[in-house]
Each structure stands twice: as C-alpha cells, then as structure tokens.
Design brief:
The chain is mainly α. The chain has a single domain, classed as Multidrug-efflux Transporter Regulator, Chain: A, Domain 2, CATH 1.10.1660.10. The chain is built from five helices and three strands; from the N terminus they run αβααββαα. Strands 1-3-2 form a three-stranded antiparallel beta sheet. Residues 17-85 form the HTH merR-type domain.
C-alpha cells in the first residue's frame, strides 16, 4: 500500500505529529500535565520508533479542554471524567439523530 503524502498526514487530525514538548508548548501546559492525562486514560499518545510520545491535533484539543477545566479549579481526574462524559453524550446525540432521520425519512416528491 502506498504511503500517504506528507501533506495528507499533516491534514489528518489523528496523525501523531507533535512531540511532547511541542504539544505542551502549543496548549500552554507542561509535559507532566500531558503525562497525567495519559495516566488518567484521557488520551493515549502514540510512540515514535524511539519510544517518544507523539500527539495528534485531536489529542491536543482534548488536552486543551482538560487544561481549561483544571485552570477553573476542577481536579484533573474530574476534568478527565467530564470530558469523557461530554464525548459520550455527543456520540449518543449523533446516533439519536441518525436513528430519527432513518425512522422519519423525508416525503418523496412526485
């Protein structure tokens, strides 16, 4: 299978493009905070061939949301749980909308 072009990978929200140091810098936190999010199982960074943590843009958005909650005084464990529940609620809403659309198809024009 051919490798995707570099620009395709960088456009991919799930591509692990950022090192821990760069990721921490981008969201205004410390590497220790990112490690704590991993320990809380909120995000699981991929590992480079050398074993270094690598983060995607999607993971950085989640980490930034956690940082915002912690900055507001929420304990990190609670912040992680809130984000997980928000994600589950969004998924349930999406599924509910799909089921409603399938149950009530638009009338056909004649």
């Amino acid at each position: 299978m051919p490798r995707p072009a570099t620009s395709d990978r960088l456009d991919d929200d799930d591509y692990p493009a950022y090192t821990m140091g760069r990721a921490a810098e981008m969201i205004g936190t410390t590497p220790a905070f990112l490690r704590a999010l991993g320990e809380a199982q909120l995000i699981t960074p991929l590992r480079s061939p050398g074993g270094h943590r690598r983060y995607s843009r999607y993971q950085l958005r989640i980490a930034a949301r956690a940082r915002d909650l912690v900055d507001q005084g929420t304990p990190i464990e609670a912040a992680c749980r809130i984000i997980i529940l928000e994600d589950q609620l969004e998924e349930a809403r999406r599924i509910n909308e799909q089921l409603r659309a399938a149950a009530n198809p638009p009338p056909q024009q004649q």
